[in-house]
Structure formats: structure tokens, C-alpha cells
Amino acid sequence: MITQALLAETAQALRSGTLDVIEYLNELCDRIEAYEGQVQAFVPENDRRQRLLREAEDLKQRYPDPHTRPSLYGIPVGIKDIFRVDGFPTRAGSDFPPGVLAGDEASWVTKLREAGALIAGKTVTTEFAYFEPGPTRNPHNLEHTPGGSSSGSAAGVACGFFPLAFGTQTIGSVIRPAAFCGIIGFKPSFDRISTDGLIIFSRSADHVGLFTQDIEGMELAASLLCHNWQSCFTDSRETEERPVVGVPEGKYLKQASYDGMKAFETQVQVLEDRGYTVKCVPMFDDIASVNHSHRQMTAAEVAQEHAEWFETYRDRYRPRTLEIILKGQQISSSELEIARAGRLELRQQIEEAQTKHGIDVWVSPAAPGEAPKGIHATGDPIMNLPWTYAGVPTITVPAGMSKNHLPIGLQCSAAFMHDERLLAWMPGIMETLKHG
Q1: Mean pLDDT rounded to a whole number for the chain
Q2: Which of 214, 135, 207, 220 is closest to 166 using CA atoms?
Q3: Residue range 85-104: average pLDDT?
Q4: Where are the domains of the chain?
């Protein structure tokens, strides 16, 4: 069920014509038809194959000369059904009536189309990107969760249904499912990709995130969509010195499970054994306060976002979504402002520690452990929370398998707006972990 689907390699082949877009899409649709019934990564769509082939024919006529083809020519993309995309209904994993969540297409989706990408389809999300799961299963083991809330996007990339997908992260909804599904998940710095066209959960925390199987493909997509991307950092990768790695010791790491910490300690030891400088730095001693502030902020903001819908459709919300909205309604405006201010305070704390100790990239567990069994819940995002709250760029890369043969990821974070440097360091770290 798991198969290789490398974005950069596929994009180059489609642009050059060594891979025909019609042939490629037929192969993908065959794969989707073979496995989608088990994985359920997509929001159901009638005649997906016919639509994609029709759009691909239009693309071929528009770009007959390979030399004029845009960077994502013919690349099918999965998009979490929390974004508005022209031609597709937006339901956000909810039981809302069709059309209630309609609106203008997300601007970055339009950019994808202009770059030659095709929309493979909407992917399954938890209800309004919170904790009520959809039907998606982990392709490594169908009895386990793929994570949430960007479950369909992560599972679809792992299955090779599409080489590029998009989701959102409010706490851990890109990093966690990517780790559980054994792929790369990248959350850029806060607001580096616009959230217009998104059914917002928390305006102060929502990030647009990306999923691929290859870091070269991640760079390709990020360079197109992230505001003011500086390609000089990633283009000069071969001359980059190895980053100094920081381990945030203390109460934060104690939130991981025993097996999760053992796996993480092994990953760090591999990096150190292969020549990386690793510094253990006490961090996040106030992690309980950080966790509380982030949750207060997001609860208050989701209540604000849903205020009008809630009056009309309260009976259509599932229990956990209803609970967070009711909680948010009780949070005062002063409490919300304090929680919002905490984001910049935490970001400053992180960056001051980096400067003081000469740290380039923080490493930490991408999740408390492996993907939990069952699909009634999506796993705990607690290991992702401080990096999301601070809005700093964060990526998870595959870092081995658990004793139960489920993927384990390594979470890496850098200073705010150092997204390019973070991606430039990843090939070396991934190669080290792969052969460690």
C-alpha cells in the first residue's frame, strides 16, 4: 500500500515529457481505486478520473512545448477539506448543509493552478480541524490512526495517491500525521503562507502546511507559496555547514511516552555519532503554562469564528467540537489578549536560547510515540504545541520505525522566518538518520 511518490522527480519528468501526464494520471487513478476503499483519504467524488484526464488534456494543449511548462505541470495535489477550492464543495468534515461554508478560493490554491498543478481532490479532515476524526486510516497499519486533523492529506501522500498535499496546523495537525504516516510534514513560519480561503479555527495559531515524501519536492512547493522565499539558502545547500543541534531538556520532553523518548534518544545519539554538535539546553520549564495559554487562545478564537454558525447549527456539531466552542465562549477578552501576547514572549525565549547557546535547529519528538491504535482519536499533539504557539518553522522527517513497525518522526524547528535554512539542513539530517 505504501509506495514511493517523489514530487521533485515527478515534476521534472512531467515537465520534460519523459513522463506523459495522461499515462501518469491513469496510473495514479488505478492506485486510488485499488486502495482508497481501505484508506479513505479522499472526500468522495464522482468521476475523479474523468475530471483529471479532462483537465490534463487542457493542460497539454496549453503547454505543448516542454520548455514552457510551469514548475508543477501535471502534478496532482491533495487539499484538506478546510480550504475553499473552486469546483469543490467545502464541508470541513462537518454535517453542515452544502453551501454554508462556500467562499472565494484560497489564493495559494490559485497559485498552484497557475504553476500547472491539478487538484486530485479534497482530503478528509477532522470536524473543523479539531479532534472529531473522519474515516481515514493509517496506510502502514489500517488499525491505527493516521493522525489529525490533516489525516487525508498525510495518508494520501504516504499511499502515493498524490506527491504533494496541504493541510493546516493549529497545534500539531501537520507534524503529527506526517510522523504517523512516515512522510515529511512542513509547517512554515506563522503567516508565511496566507490563510485566506481557510475555514479558520484560530487566527492567531492556524498555519498552512505541506506534505511530501522528498525534501527536494518540499523546497519546490514551499518556494512557490511561501512569501518572499529566498532560494539562495537552499540552492547553496552543499556548502552549508552542519547545524548545531539543540535538545530542549526538561518538562517538555517528559510529555513524551517512554518508547517515544527512547526512540528520540536514539535519533539524537545517531546525529552526535555522525559528527553533529548536540547541545542539551533546559527549555520550557513553564510548559504547563504555555500549553494552557495556547489552548485558551485557540478555544476563545474558535468560539469567535463560529459565533454566527453556532446560533443556527449548534445541533450539528459533534461532541468534542461543541465542547471547545462552549469553553471558548467563557474565556474573557483580557484572558485572550494575554494568551495572544504569550506567542511573542515564547518566540523570544526560544530565539534567546538559540543565540546564547549557538543553536541552529531544535530537535524533539514529533509525537509522544507511535500512532495509537484505533481511529476514534487522532493522537496527542502536545509535542508540537510550543513550536506552533511561537509560530516558528517546523518540519518532521522520517526517523525509523517503532517496535510495532509504525513510523517515527523527528521534529526539527528553527528561528522565526528561517524556513529556508531549516529546509537546507534537512537532507543531511535525513541521510544521517537513514544510515545511522
Answers
A1: 97
A2: 207
A3: 97
A4: 7-235, 239-286+343-435
Could you say which architecture CATH assigns to the domain 7-235? Alpha-Beta Complex (3.90)
Report the distance separating Cα 47 and Cα 58, nearest Å.
Answer: 17
List 144's β-bridge partners, or say none. 373, 374
| Dihedrals phi, psi of 335, to nearest 5 degrees | -65, -40
CA separation for the pair 130, 127 (Å, rounded):
6
In the set 151, 153, 173, 189, the catalytic residue is 173
**pTM, to two decimals:** 0.98
- Cα-based distances in Å from 124 to 101, 166, 284, 358: 16, 11, 33, 41
Q: Give the Cα separation of 304 and 325 in Å (integer).
A: 8
Give the per-residue pLDDT at 232.
74
Q: What's the CATH code, domain 239-286+343-435?
A: 3.90.1300.10
| Beta bridge pairs of residue 364 | 411
148-169 pLDDT, tens digit per residue, is: 999 999 999 999 999 999 999 9
% helix, strand, coil for the chain, step of 5: 45, 15, 40
β-strand pairing of 361-365 with 245-249: parallel
Concerning whether 202 is annotated as a catalytic residue, the answer is no
Fold: same for 7-235 and 239-286+343-435: yes
Known active-site residue 257: no
CA–CA dist 313, 364 (Å, integer): 40
Catalytic residue among 94, 149, 202, 364: 149
| SS3 label, residue 66 | helix
